[in-house]
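Hi U.,

Before I forget, here's the chain from the pilot set. I'm dumping it here mostly so it's searchable later in email.
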Amino acid sequence: MPLDDNAPRRRPERPEAVRNVLGSALLPCSVAPVTGFFRDGCCNTGPMDRGLHVVCAEVTAAFLAFSAARGNDLSTPRPEYGFAGLKPGDRWCLCAARWEEARLAGVAPPVLLEATHEAALAVVDLSHLRAHAV
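Structure:
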């Protein structure tokens, strides 16, 4: 049975302790559509987030096609989960490994550094994030 993607999840960190890749307070990524592992609009993470959904990106058509080809179709609506599907220009908290995979394939979407959780640095080099900054 699939996990209800809109079910609230308890965030383990105190908001004031959450930092972005620049070392300052993590800013929201998107509330329309609402994103984040905890569906709180931020790219927060915790022990339950095995995918490390911490890179705040403005998705592009090329990235959406790339992700769908890798088995994660983010553009098709899934009303049973309250998911309208993403379109180019939407902001979304991506898995750090998928963003890095897309970068290596030449289709990494732009990144909002201030809204990208510092945990992304365990997977992605800051220089690559900066090179794709909005």
